[in-house]
Amino acid sequence: MIFECVLAHPPARAGVQMRPERELAGLLGKERHLVRTALGHLVKKGVLVRMRGSGTFVRRTLQNSSPSSDVLTSLKLTPSDFFLKGNENGGGVNFPVARQQLHLGLIGDLKLQHPSSQKMLSEFLRQVAGKGHRLTVCPVFQSEAADFQMPVVDQMADALKNYSCDGYIVLATWADLFLQAVGGRCPPAAFFWTGACSAIHEPLFQIDAGEAVERAVALFHREGRRRVAVINLEKPEPHCRIESTAYDRAAELSGQSYRLLKNVPLNPEQIMDAVARMMREPEPPDALYVADDTLMPAVASALDKAGIRPGFDLGVISHSNRGIPLPAGTDWSRLEFNLESFVCLIVEHLVKTIQQTDVPPVNLKLQANWRAGATHGLKENRGGDESADPAFERNEPLFN
């Protein structure tokens, strides 16, 4: 219990070396074999690691759930007394640090047929390996089928015991099941979602797709468009439908009474049919926001088949992800998310939470960067001269 308290307070952090067993026994007034047994228990739990010929090092820190701080006070000890100190530097104490490899788990249904999911999965693997750690993509939670079934709680609990990871990266739709499976004491975790959602778990990292919808509608409104439609991928999860709410709010703020929202499955034929029916409405849209980059190829094909020219007959802006190319032959204006930065923030926060004590949860929404293409305004209304808008002439972003 004393060691658990020590490992939940500074200067405990990954890589810091414990004092030798003989010195620890002297500090506590205990026999050395008792100290060795207590440290061995923490080694088995993956909290400490023994390095032959070097000593015992902190591998990960613990949450402060132990009342042993009173015992330390009675012994007139502080947590720093339990670690091997280096040379004093500038009035402070330098604790030697040895780098330790962590084992992280990724839980979620990142469907590998989605380009954005492929990009994100490769980024998780690259970022974790680049920091010297190891990532396991929990296979029991992968599903390449569109109609996958989530495993029941006991299945997930058994799988988590087998993986025995130091921390987990969890897709928000699996958060409730994950928390039930781990029980009362949750291991370090970071929850993420690749769009707008109202999940309340912390720390939560999300792509702020709702804000992107609002920006697209506002930009079209600035360009004089009054019939802005949105086409989006169907999302069955109730907490992941914020894009629709954002569309309504943005339309209301801009004074736009027009409402046309199409939620479609990831099926090229159905996407093309939805676009065709949208353009046959009694009042067809004069602008279209494509709210999911996986829809872009089918939308581009549908517009081409109907003879509709983006930027001439119809204003078009698309959600996009950096590193994933636009459909061939297109130069769509877009709101682009940087998945590399997004994944980096998630991994860095989780590793910091595992390796250091008293790290507060951080909730973060990543917003899109504006990438002006040739399609968000109608060239017919400007006589084809983009320089009529000073923002184009100066090549400045339209949003701050």
Question: Would you kindly provide a written description of the structure presented here, covering whatever features stand out?
Answer:
The structure is a single chain. By secondary structure, this protein is an alpha/beta fold. It has three domains: 2-93, Arc Repressor Mutant, subunit A; 103-208 and 341-366, Rossmann fold; 210-337 and 370-393, Response regulator (Rossmann fold, 3-Layer(aba) Sandwich), CATH 3.40.50.2300. The chain has helices spanning 2-6, 21-28, 32-44, 69-74, 115-130, 153-163, 175-182, 209-222, 242-253, 268-279, 296-305, 339-355, 390-393; strands at 48-51, 55-58, 88-89, 92-93, 103-107, 134-137, 167-171, 189-193, 204-207, 228-233, 261-264, 287-290, 315-321, 333-337, 364-366, 369-371. The strands form four sheets. Strands 6-5-7-8-9-15 form a six-stranded parallel β-sheet, covered by helices on one side. Helix 5 crosses helix 12 (339-355), helix 8 (209-222) packs parallel to helix 9 (242-253) and helix 10 (268-279) crosses helix 11. Mean pLDDT is 81; it is low at 87-92, 141-148 and 380-400.
Q: Average the pLDDT over all residues and give the rounded result.
A: 81
**Poorly predicted tracts of residues:** 87-92, 141-148, 380-400
Q: How many DSSP helices?
A: 13
Distance between the termini: 52 Å
Instruction: Specify the CATH homologous superfamily of the largest domain.
Output: Response regulator
Number of spatially distinct domains: 3
Shape: elongated
CATH structural class of the largest domain: Alpha Beta
Biggest sheet architecture: 6 strands, parallel
- Please list the strands of the largest sheet in the order they lie side by side: 6-5-7-8-9-15
